[in-house]
Amino acid sequence: xxxxxxxxxxxxxxxxxxxxxxxxxxxxxxxxxxxxxxxxxxxxxxxxxxxxxxxxxxxxxxxxxxxxxxxxxxxxxxxxxxxxxxxxxxxxxxxxxxxxxxxxxxxxxxxxxxxxxxxxxxxxxxxxxxxxxxxxxxxxxxxxxxxxxxxx
Length: 152
Fold this sequence. Notes:
Layout: H1 2-21, E1 26-27, E2 41-47, E3 58-62, E4 65-70, E5 74-80, E6 83-93, E7 98-108, E8 113-120, E9 125-130, H2 132-140, E10 143-144
Parallel strand pairs: 2-8, 5-10
Antiparallel strand pairs: 1-4, 2-5, 3-4, 3-6, 6-7, 8-9
């Protein structure tokens, strides 16, 4: 009986390590240079909190460049030049062990804010744009991870 308790405790600790230690977050690349700070817009990228995929980080891309790793329940923000940008998410796994990517076109407005949400899906992860009021509510319930050292 005592051995079963020890085995259960070890299994529980192992699961906790997997779910808390494997996912990393933060800048992994650089953003496009801001040409005019006064006409740049702010982009918020929010990853929904979910047990699905919680142990892995998703990679955020901007204009086909990997820029940031984001964990479950986190968000980041950064500035981009006004205009159209391709913003995406990459992750490894799902039904086949390959890297999957989904992206959308976002029209960044001068001095405006764009809110994007990343969530797990059948392929691996998806990204969609949401309205400002929904985005602000999502930000309040997420953990901020700054985009350190890059046009922040």
